[in-house]
Amino acid sequence: MASKQTKALRRQETIAERGIIALNKVSMSYQGDGAPALDDVTLRIDPGEFVFVVGDSGSGKTTLIKLLLRELVPTSGDVCVMGYNTKKLRHRQIPEFRRNIGVVFQDFRLLKDRNVYENVAFAQRIIEVPTREMKKNVPGILSMVGLAGRYRYNVTDLSGGEQQRVALARALVNKPEILLADEPTGNLDPNNAWEIMDLLEEINEQGTTVIVVTHNPEIVNAMKKRVIAMRKGIIVSDEEEGTYVNED
Ligand code: ADP
Ligand code: MG
Fold first, then answer.
1. 101 within 8 A of 180, measured Cβ to Cβ
2. Mind listing the pLDDT tens digit for each residue in 136-169?
3. Spatial contact of 69 and 97, defined as CB atoms under 8 Å apart
4. Which of 156, 180, 201, 208 has its CA at a distance of 20 to 30 angstroms from the CA of residue 83?
């Protein structure tokens, strides 16, 4: 049985060789007979990249995110994230695996009966961070997202943009290696959308690998990042400094 250190070293080697995210001929079918949601997708993302994923509704973007979180395992092919093949992950390894992936959604998914501080602290309590550390980490991340003064507010009293910043703080407080954002600005006005994107860029500059699903052409075209375009479960283009690809 290899030691924990040996396994960690092997994972680092796998990441260096194959990327922090590596999909090899991945297909995902929800029903046995219908068209697959992902169809033979091969993809590599290296540590520290910022990647947009675009495509029409139903093209497989959320399915891709769920495969990366190991909410789904592929029908065929391999999904490797941070050096783990998600198919081979043992149940007891899943909490540790998920702890290293932050995630934000279009609809924020906050605890509506808790204040800002508690929503972020919750992520630390789950992994049993000592209270003393938590009392440093939570205010630190709240000030990064510009909400230091609002920690006692109930989240339902905040604007949409502020709620998404709370969700972002919660996703980041455990210092994940990867941040996945599935249409994070879908419910926001342009100003708030830009604030969230600026934060995502800042997080990326600090070393986190960031993957953002979006329908916002202005943002994609302005930011000049890698753009992966999907259509009907297939990657139809993948460009460095790409532009928004509209399939209509
Ligand atoms: P997107 O996020 O790009 O809109 P999805 O990944 O949500 O696309 O969906 C891709 C395809 O898979 C669609 O045809 C959708 O109807 C189908 N699909 C998604 N989730 C499920 C599910 N839980 N059960 C059955 N089909 C699903
Ligand atoms: Mg989706």
1. yes
2. 999 999 999 999 999 999 999 999 999 999 999 9
3. no
4. 201
